[in-house]
Amino acid sequence: MNKTKLQDPYSYRFLNHLKNFIEEYSLFEKTDDLLLAVSGGLDSMVLLKAISELNNYGYSNKIRVITINHGTRKSQKDEVRLVKNYAFKLGFKTIVKNIEKSLSEENFEAQARIERYRIFHKVLWPGEKLLLAHHIDDSFEWTLLQQLRSSSLKGSLGIPLKNKNIVRPFLCLTRSQIETYGKLNLIDFVEDPTNKENRFERNFLRNEVIPQFQNRHVKYLKHYVFRQNELARVLGVHLLDRKKSSLKIINSDHSLLGYSYKNDEDFSGIESILSKGLKKINPKSRGVTAEQFKRIKAALKNHKRGPLTLSGGVSVFLDYNMFLMTTKKAPKLNEVELGNIKLEEFETVLDRYMSDSSFVLSFPFFVQVQSPGLDTRQFNTSFNIEAVKTLKKSSNSYYPALRLLREWSKKRNRFKSLSIKLMLVKY
Known about the structure:
The protein is α/β, with parallel strands linked by helices. Helices cover 40% and strands 17% of the residues.
């Protein structure tokens, strides 16, 4: 990989986390044109450095930098020079724009913000994305301010991650994480002296209110992020839930089966699916957090088997591209002879059984394959363990159904006919 990985593990983790966040939420593509708003403060200077490092991960974006001189302090000319020099060092050109606003003007913050965005939109190229350096702490402060000003739920959602061509990739990072990256990478920046002036509402919250509870409630930002995600889902505006998912969900009285035929399934919106499924299976369940559902999603992506235990005797079992949430124990499975069939026939038969709630406890739908002509494989499972013990004594290869589909669908195998038996719970 790059030198950062060898020299500085923290920076390597920081950049990997940022890259994964950008990709998970489709903030921008690897070849998009990007306009970075850089003020000379720590957050935006770190954003400039971090985005420039993405070329080590296959990104080849055309990057421009814009900085705005508000004309409120003599030192702002030095700040502009700092931004231009650092951008030049990284290989980028800087656009400098000036606005004339007096700090004594009524509602200065709002007026200056409106003017900045007017300039941004005027400078943006067609299709270009504007990147801003707002982070989790900024969003928390903004949310707190909105809750004091308004009773609207949407006003409590925080700073938008995406708004048309404006994106904020640092909304996966805290101020503390950004400060650490800045120190390790020796990034020069300027501290705006007006940040200490508590006559501005945001500054008052940041400097006076939040310090009163942050040491006592050290996980307040973590809880904030999970709460905002859940609120976004309740309001139907969560970005991942909006993405079309190919997950199929089968409900029974005691179980929930989820599966996808897509090899690149990203399990978008699965947290909401799991939450609803848990409430249906065990309405009295308590204490399950969004973090647990996020852990299940990560385990699915990493092809773990589980089980993961939730409250009320509910467990989640995993296999490739599928999961089973249930309160039941694994039943005895029976062989269903399908004979010598082609891939298309198997897909039809399998879908009929998997979409029938009577068969959800057949998970992960083991298939015995006689003389497969495929890669010889044997798999373990965290559910239906006794069936695996029996299958291992057989001379046949066996696969969980979706793993077999993946192997059978490969170009070298897709025209083969296979003699198979499907393992199902007795109906």
